[in-house]
Amino acid sequence: MSHDRTAHTAERERINDAINRLLAGAPTRSSGSLTVEALAAEADVHRMALYKRHADLRELFNERIRKETKQMPEGERRLRKENATLRQSLKDARAGEAEARWVAEQTILAAAVLTAKSNKNEPKAERRKDSNVIPLRKPRT
After folding, report:
1. How wide is the angle at C-alpha 128 spanned by C-alphas 124 and 130, nearest 5°?
2. CB atoms within 10 A of CB 49
């Protein structure tokens, strides 16, 4: 077995041992919290090793947390909370957008009504003078 393969296997064994210690409530190198960060500290590996080289062990850790402690893993709990916050923000933004659209529509309608009333009160000659619209003549029959 090559040196790299041996180091990889030893790292996996340290991670498995760390999982068992954390779930047993007997940490030796970490805070003992059931997080990937604590697992990395407990196994003496870089956190990214659990995301890249040993993702299967990270998932095993999270599954064992769910099964053995009946808890949700901390990372998942944070993501669910952030997801709920973002959904509420999106809902609020959509409501604000709908309200702004309604206000704009009402403003445009009010302006159209006021313009129509204003034009109605002006004499025809003045309307033609100020307007760039040329009225069509009725066709001769």
Report:
1. 120
2. 18
Distance separating alpha carbons of residues 51 and 123, to the nearest angstrom: 78
Q: Where are the beta strands (DSSP E) in 31-94?
A: none
pLDDT tens digits, residue range 9-68? 999 999 999 999 999 999 999 989 899 999 999 999 999 999 999 999 999 999 999 999
Q: Is the pTM of this model over 0.70?
A: no
Biggest CA–CA distance in the chain, Å, is 105
Whole-angstrom Cα Rg for the chain: 35
Neighbouring residues of 34: CB distance < 8 A, sequence distance ≥ 6:
22, 23, 65, 69, 71, 73, 74
Where b means 16+ CB within 10 Å and e means fewer, 84-105 reads eeeeeeeeeeeeeeeeeeeeee
Nearest to 18 by CA among 68, 49, 61: 61
Q: Coil, strand or helix: which one is 140?
A: coil
Amino acid of residue 110: A
